[in-house]
Amino acid sequence: MKSYFRRFKGLFFQLLLVVLLWGLMSYWQTRNMANGRASTSHLQDLSGAPVSVPDSGNRNVTLLYFFAPWCGVCKVSMPNLNDLKRNMPDVNIQAVALDYESQEDVKAFVKKHHIEVPVAYGNDELRRLWHVEAYPSYFVIDEDQTIRFRSVGYSSELGMILKIFWLRFFG
C-alpha cells in the first residue's frame, strides 16, 4: 500500500510539474500579444469586399485566427476552425492571412485546405497592432470586444471549445 501511495505521489508531482511548465511556456509565448480592448481594423476578404476585424457579427464570442500560408502548423490546425464552425455556429470565427507573398497564395491555401470560415487579407500594420510574432495566433474576444484568451501554436477543436465555454460560463 505504501509503495502504491509513493508511486501515486510521484506521478502527481510529475503531472504538476508538466502543467506548471506548460503554463509558463504559454505565458512566455503570449506575453507580448495584444491584450485588453480589441482594436477594429478594416480589411478586404478574398472577394475584395470590405470586412471589419474583429467583427462580432451580432454574436457573443469571436475567435480571431491569424495564419500564414507557408505555416506548417496552420495547415494542420485550420481544419479545426471548420469543425468549430459546424459544431458552434453561434461563435463568430474570422481568419486573417499575414506574411503572404501574394493574394493568390492565400486563395490557393484556402482552396487547398477547404477552409470554410471567412478569410481576410491582413498586413504588417495589423500584425504589429495585434503583436503577432508567430503562427498560428488565436484571440478569443467577448461581446464587449475585450480580448479574453490568447494563444500561439496548434490548438485542437476541443482546446478552442474549452476556452469559449470558459468565457461563457465564467467570463
Report what the structure shows:
By secondary structure, the chain is α+β, with helices and mostly antiparallel strands. The protein folds into two domains: 1-31; 35-170, Glutaredoxin (3-Layer(aba) Sandwich). The protein is built from five helices and eight strands; from the N terminus they run αββββαβαβαββα. It has an eight-stranded mixed β-sheet with strand order 1-8-7-4-5-6-2-3. A hairpin with a 4-residue loop joins strand 7 (137-141) and strand 8.
CATH class division of the largest domain: Alpha Beta
- Approximately what portion of the residues adopt beta-strand conformation? 15-25%
Q: Which fold name fills CATH's third level, the topology of the largest domain?
A: Glutaredoxin
Largest sheet: 8 strands, mixed
Give the end-to-end Cα distance, rounded to a whole number of Å: 43 Å
The tally of beta strands, per DSSP, is 8
The assembly state of the depicted protein chains is single chain
Mean pLDDT: 88
Element-by-element helix/strand order: HEEEEHEHEHEEH
Percentage of helical residues? Answer: 40-55%
CATH architecture type of the largest domain: 3-Layer(aba) Sandwich
Number of domains: 2
Cα-atom radius of gyration: 18 Å
Strand order of the largest sheet: 1-8-7-4-5-6-2-3
